[in-house]
Amino acid sequence: MTPQEYAQQKAAASGSSFYYAFLFLPPERRAAITAFYAYCREIDDVVDEVSDPGIAQSKLDWWRGEVRNAFAGQASHPALQALLPHSQTFGIEARHLLQVIEGCEMDLIQTRYLDFANLKQYCHLVAGVVGEVAANIFGQTDPRTTDYAHRLGLALQLTNIIRDVGEDAVRGRVYLPIEDLQRFDVKAHELIKRGSTSDASFPQRFEALMQFQIERALATYDEALALLPAQDRQAQKPGLMMASIYRTLLHEIAREPQLVLTRRVSLTPLRKLWLAWKVQALGRL
Question: Domain 1-109, what fold?
Fold first, then answer.
């Protein structure tokens, strides 16, 4: 298959909500964001699917070299072969791609975060930088839109963390800050056991913890939307679609927070498409 077909297949196969936001973009912008998303999936998959940290590190080091080679005109991986033709048009630089690697690399060496400030630095690398690149691809005209993009990236990543509490805990990763766990008296080992504890107070403690996380994430969406300049609102609709889909997901999780310990809470494809279309056609989240 062609590099473009490879990127399209990689993006679609992930089942991500991002895919629905891409559908309404003009062809060139859609091709660019699809290729960029395929690259991000490649890097993320290294950490999620390779169980040996040493092998995962070697693969990330290979990707670092591949990024440098690609920007020197010698891309060998189809994801980068699909992405590089769009790099100059949309301001995609090697540093952006290398920061995505740096963020995912943190998962190999750090499984706990002391406080929210530490967690935000991780989110900056794996989501804020992604938001910055995406905003350029969507069509940014006001430099203040970068601040919006970074804040939106933080909100989206906080949502991922909330949704994936159980899955991440099985891998030994607890992204919820230690200061929050202590505040609500929830132990990391209780999350790793996915709530299968004899302590009758766990459900109440866990629900209080999750409601706090959900409220913080929802507030971060509000902060992001307040930062978006009016003149870029039309162009940035794909990001607004993501905000709509992920905020709706948070409200679903809030109805029964304990579900995130045992399964991935998600919206149906039809509902995601409806939420995306509503933003596109009506401009409403």
Answer: Farnesyl Diphosphate Synthase (1.10.600)
